[in-house]
Amino acid sequence: MSSVISEIRKDYLYNLMLRGQRADGRAFDQPREISIKTGVIRKAEGSALVTLGDTQVMVGVKMQPGEPFPDSLDRGVIVTNAELVPLASPMFEPGPPNEFGIELARVVDRGVRESGAVDLAGLCITPGEKVWIVFIDIHILDDCGNIMDASSLGAIAALLTTTVPAKKFGLGEDYPLPIKDIPIAMTAVEFGGVVMFDADVDEEAMADTKLTVISRADGTICGVQKSGTGVLSQEQIYRIVDIACENAKGIREKFLEV
Amino acid sequence: MSSVISEIRKDYLYNLMLRGQRADGRAFDQPREISIKTGVIRKAEGSALVTLGDTQVMVGVKMQPGEPFPDSLDRGVIVTNAELVPLASPMFEPGPPNEFGIELARVVDRGVRESGAVDLAGLCITPGEKVWIVFIDIHILDDCGNIMDASSLGAIAALLTTTVPAKKFGLGEDYPLPIKDIPIAMTAVEFGGVVMFDADVDEEAMADTKLTVISRADGTICGVQKSGTGVLSQEQIYRIVDIACENAKGIREKFLEV
Amino acid sequence: MSSVISEIRKDYLYNLMLRGQRADGRAFDQPREISIKTGVIRKAEGSALVTLGDTQVMVGVKMQPGEPFPDSLDRGVIVTNAELVPLASPMFEPGPPNEFGIELARVVDRGVRESGAVDLAGLCITPGEKVWIVFIDIHILDDCGNIMDASSLGAIAALLTTTVPAKKFGLGEDYPLPIKDIPIAMTAVEFGGVVMFDADVDEEAMADTKLTVISRADGTICGVQKSGTGVLSQEQIYRIVDIACENAKGIREKFLEV
Amino acid sequence: MQGNNGNITFIRDGVRLDGRRVDELRPIKIEVGVLSRADGSCYMEMGDNKVVAAVYGPREVHPRHLQEVSRAIVRYRYNMASFSVEERRRPGPDRRSYELSKVSREALEPVILTSYFPRSVIDIFVEVLQADAGTRTAGINAASVALADAGIPMKGLITSCAAGKVDGQVVLDPMKEEDNFGQADLPIAITPWGDITLIQMDGDLSRDEFRQAVELARIGCGKIYEIQRKALLDRYCQMESAAQEA
Amino acid sequence: MQGNNGNITFIRDGVRLDGRRVDELRPIKIEVGVLSRADGSCYMEMGDNKVVAAVYGPREVHPRHLQEVSRAIVRYRYNMASFSVEERRRPGPDRRSYELSKVSREALEPVILTSYFPRSVIDIFVEVLQADAGTRTAGINAASVALADAGIPMKGLITSCAAGKVDGQVVLDPMKEEDNFGQADLPIAITPWGDITLIQMDGDLSRDEFRQAVELARIGCGKIYEIQRKALLDRYCQMESAAQEA
Amino acid sequence: MQGNNGNITFIRDGVRLDGRRVDELRPIKIEVGVLSRADGSCYMEMGDNKVVAAVYGPREVHPRHLQEVSRAIVRYRYNMASFSVEERRRPGPDRRSYELSKVSREALEPVILTSYFPRSVIDIFVEVLQADAGTRTAGINAASVALADAGIPMKGLITSCAAGKVDGQVVLDPMKEEDNFGQADLPIAITPWGDITLIQMDGDLSRDEFRQAVELARIGCGKIYEIQRKALLDRYCQMESAAQEA
To answer: How many CB pairs under 8 A join C and D?
Structure first.
């Protein structure tokens, strides 16, 4: 899914990198500018528009009553879907999600699920029969690199502002979706031995390998995913994990904690 | 979906047109010969084989009990589908309906629905639980132009002869489907400033633009659809609407009124 | 679905054939070596790995309660599916079953169904409401010719060792799936007037025409299917039927009767 | 084949439910050249079955990679209209129609001179407008006539017919009730010189009954062949006289 | 059009539920060039509708067999986000979005100079982020601006607007409630010189009302056209000054 | 990871439910060259997991537009048989299998010398016949051996193994119960020289536990690597002696 990048641009970026620099002047572990607008879609129970540099991702959360899973009869259900619509990148094609869209949705989903971000036990309506289904829909608008972190950020930001629409379904008063943790995904790419966080679209095109690390508020890890056809050393992985957990703290404090 | 037409044939038709003529001698506002045979498919609750010149369309109506829509709990449901099977034209391909088939079905459906042709309130079995579903299935057999009008005509002709199969489902005696109006679609094409009704396959291939107008028995309009990549002036549209409503009267009287 | 075969190999096989011989020394009516291992998949209610020469087919049987068909409310349901996965042959492609896979599954299914092999009346749980669904899943592992007979053999071998998982669904004690007959499919190919049973992959590639005959334990016929673009004479068909019924007896006795 | 016929007697005094003898076909009607767009076409009724067949080609193959360098490929699409059966069926192909399309194509391909048209395709489309047991045989018969109408060079017409078994007796051309509750169904297709291009069977037949059924189905084919030929001849004469008038 | 408005009065003393007069548009907001990856883009709000349009191209056609030797093909994909409507919709196109994509493409194609770019494609993508009656017209308006932003040569901007009928009266730019319970909906799209490139209608209109509705929708288009032009001009000035600063 | 283990104690006196120590693998069985049609193949059991891997290629790419001018593309299809799990699964890929196919391909691709075979494809197919936690690692191990069996030039064998966490303790190669009710799952794949080509993790691990889990999984990989090598060696010897006999 990486974009095509000209050889000249590649050489330029590579030479910069050797001198410890990035094209936009950031440090290797520094993310681009982040902005999060929530409540942007009135028709959704929760929503967030995240910009990460030029990357833009809209996440909408919709809720409706439905059946629980047979193996967790008294817990709500989370369904996460990502649409890599062709509006967002010349690399995206219309049609059902391909392996990139599926991986994106599944990693975001695992971050939310494994961190216990949503109190699923608080989403039971009638045990064994009816629970709340939480649909997290990720709509990529402009893929200028690292849609993984932007999507993950959008998902938790939207969840944090979600109202359970109980009234609409005759199930009492509306109430805020119970949130128990704030998972943050941080993705690094590796190229020529150098590790860079929050790659832009050119850096992504250059690198073979990504590592996404999702951490909880308490600094523990709830998700890791390597993708791409390159390799990582054990040390690189440990280092990425460490930086990811540290950086996540800053973002959580700045943008998401109440 | 327009057929390929040779340049020579096109020039010939164009020159004719400039002299106010059509290849088969018709006036610009004159439809081809129409024949309607109903009751041709014994296994359907209603059916009609319409020929419009060489164009042949079979419409079958099937009915079965089912669930009402949530926003109209005491009304029957209409489902319209069109199969542009590859038997009918070298331009049609196997597979699920493409945008042409979908548009055709949806325009026919809107004509039936918006005209209030079928008394949906009379198709409620148990309010909120069970109503009659009316399936209108359009099967194009030979596309020699203007399958829109032929399909629309077939749909209303089939509905007019439909028997509600109450007995088969243990719901009392069979009775005729209650019909309240007879919508008629008339389609014109535009080419080089000239407007022609009921285009044959060559005329369709030549023209960029079509306008379908569906009118009720009382002369009011219940549906309009422009299709094709050309433009129409306001005056052309008004003129087509006027002729369509007038011509529809004649067809309604001749073929469809009891 | 026939494999490509070189002209030289084809000539060689053809010349052998004219001398009444086959490449592996078998007689024309002689099947390759057969082995059947049952109970190989612990997670399935019944399973069998069949090897027929180098051909390998795995069949798994799964059972679960479900709804009966409207026209047989007090009988179990059989669902047969065949996956011609691309692991098994360079000719197979990923994706939903094509016409070869569908034909294979349907012929195996008809053999099981029409022979009355499974006592469907014995698989009713609550008449009109709940019956056992028997899923027969055929997984081709190595297509070295005649997957039809291998699949059919695998299906009945798996069924013969299937346990109805009543306990798992709170429906009493487990019991063996009631089997009433043992249908055996025998397939012959025709090429240049010669009829050969149990063709290997080269023989299949050479021949245009196949005939599958499925017979019951009492020697009567419960299924026949010609496939391929060649023709068969009436006499050839009668002869294949006779040999198929005879050969089936031997296989039934040797491998499948208790 | 449910084999479970309730208490219906299908044959009484040698006469079937619809008045036919055991070796009698249902009424047949064939019309040739019923469609304008297709290169060849045929409408056929066999009892209550109503089918239309159309042939397009030889024409270019799409997608290209299906094309064969030394011959035309043949495609056959058997399709049932949603309204053709008692309970409305969802549009589009199901597993049954994929199988019927395959065996029907294989029933016709042996007589088509495909080597005359390398790299091209001959498309055969059969639409079942009303179904009443025997749609595959009716479809093959109609398609065979449509191929001739399209001028596709063939070694001969293919003719198709089924035999069945009800009340323990082999019968020709089973109708819906006989098919639903009968004990066997055996459709065949043959060339004019007797080679068999399609044979399928399910149900319960002894080897003797199997042979009886094949023989009976062949007799049925013989009768249908004459009707096919006559329909084509009528069409030809009609076109001749139309040409002379012009 | 359900025509069944319960007991709601939609117009009281010439004023509609949301305070508009019958010939008044909902508030409109247009931003040009909102996306980096696309060649042209536009974000638009029309009342509670929120849509983004992107244009890619002219670029290579995939799959190849769609390419036209003498002109660019135009593709238009109208898509609703799952969260854009009251009840979550399943992702992916449905029959409605196929039809809207078709008529929207046909609304824009007449002004695009496709002959300048043979064998190529101009892709227009419209994402509906929030829907409130009028998404097709908002989409066309946004797409038209995005085409201009992408530098696609056009004869002029396309502008689209709907008229409706509620309480027996023709009104401009119906919102959700008026669309759901009104008596007619008539969207049009026009060129700057008044040719109509899209017209659809459903509901119940006399011939006179039909003409009134067309006239009113045209007036609406005129107002929207000015907003489109201004947005493009602002964008142009902004880029100019950015260029001068650099 | 449900993290909700009811009241099960998974480790008692350092021994797990199936009698293993925390750093012990389940029994492993590898057979090389089990399929005739494939260019390379491998059957593998890891505990109750049973998988078959086949490799085809390098061969021509279909469809053509996927082909790369300077290297072979690699495709990997992870597929579960319908009968491989407790509750029958519908045939065909689901979202999980798409993701596993992707990460498995990316686990193997780093060691395949794809530049040797421009414009071609190396297809890897893995069928899970029985599943019991760890099918992705078993599939990668089997695929790696099948690649070697197919003679595909590689820099080294890839080996894959998971670590988990149960009862607060990091364990090697979790089985079904430990996976369902455990607190974390961390599969990795490594090259013989220790580079990591796959790493995924879900559940709940401190940074220390994370490192422990990676170390433990590496130890597991080391043991599996020896079994893979031995299986390939045995196969080679067997073929040698077969060749000498001939």
So the answer is: 95
Q: Report the distance separating Cα D30 and Cα D148, nearest Å.
A: 13
3+ Cβ–Cβ pairs closer than 8 Å linking C and F: yes
Partners of residue A79 in chain E, C-beta under 8 Å: none
Contact E102 B219 (CB under 8 A): no
User: What homologous superfamily is domain C7-257 in, according to CATH?
Assistant: GHMP Kinase, N-terminal domain (3.30.230.70)
Query: Is residue E2 in some structural domain?
Result: no
Chains touching B (3+ CB pairs < 8 Å):
D, E
Residue C3 has pLDDT above 80, yes or no: no
User: Contact B137/D82, CB-based, under 8 Å?
Assistant: yes
- Chains C and B touch, contact meaning at least 3 pairs of CB atoms under 8 angstroms apart: no
CA dihedral E120, E122, E125, E126 (to 10 degrees): -160
CA distance D181 to D7: 10
Nearest-angstrom CA–CA distance, B73 and B120:
11
pLDDT band at C1 (very low <50, low <70, confident <90, very high): very low
Cα–Cα distance list, D41 to B83, D47, D108 (Å)? 19, 20, 15
Exposed (0-12), middle (13-18) or buried (19+): which is D23, by Cβ within 10 Å?
middle
Residue B176: pLDDT band by 50, 70, 90 thresholds?
A: very high
Kindly state whether F116 is in contact with chain A, defined as any CB-CB distance less than 8 angstroms.
Answer: no
Residue B85 forms contact with D (CB below 8 Å): yes
Which among B41, B87, B141 has CB closest to D83? Answer: B41
Under DSSP, the state recorded for E204 is E
- In the beta sheet, which residues pair with residue A78? A134
B209 touches chain D (CB under 8 A): no
- E81 interfaces chain A, CB cutoff of 8 Å: yes
Q: What is the band of E3 on the pLDDT scale with cuts at 50, 70, 90?
A: very low
Q: Return the amino acid letter for F153.
A: P
What ipTM was predicted for this assembly? Answer: 0.95
- Report the DSSP pairing between strands C77-83 and C130-142: parallel
Inter-chain residue contact A139 with E81, CB threshold 8 Å: yes
Judged by CB atoms closer than 8 Å, whether chains meet at C137 and F87 is answered as no
Smallest Cβ–Cβ distance between D202 and the set C71, C223, C237 belongs to C223
Based on the structure, what is the number of domains in chain E?
A: 1
| Local structure of A21: helix, strand or coil | coil
3-state class (DSSP) for residue A181 = coil
Kindly provide the residue ranges of all beta strands, DSSP E only, lying in chain C, ordered along the sequence.
34-38, 46-52, 55-66, 77-83, 124-126, 130-142, 163-164, 175-176, 184-191, 194-197, 209-215, 221-228
- Cβ–Cβ contact D176 with B under 8 A: no
Look at residue F12 in the predicted model and tell me its pLDDT: 93
One-letter amino acid identity for B253?
E
- Band of the pLDDT at A1, cuts 50, 70, 90? very low
Q: Which of A154, A193, A206, A205 lies closest to A50 in space, CA to CA?
A: A154
Judge whether E5 lies within some domain.
no
- Closest CB from E109, E201, E207 relative to B245: E207
Q: What is the CATH number of the domain that holds E236?
A: 3.30.230.70
What pLDDT tens digit does each residue of chain D (246 aa) get?
454 555 688 999 999 999 999 999 999 999 999 999 999 999 999 999 999 999 999 999 988 889 999 999 999 999 999 999 999 999 999 999 999 999 999 999 999 999 999 999 999 999 999 999 999 999 999 999 999 999 999 999 999 999 999 999 999 999 999 999 899 999 999 999 999 999 999 999 999 999 999 999 999 999 999 999 999 999 999 888 888 887
Q: What is the model's pTM?
A: 0.96
Angle at D54 between CA D48 and CA D56, to 5 degrees: 170
Whether residue C117 is predicted with pLDDT greater than 50 in this model: the reply is yes
Domain encompassing residue F169: 11-245
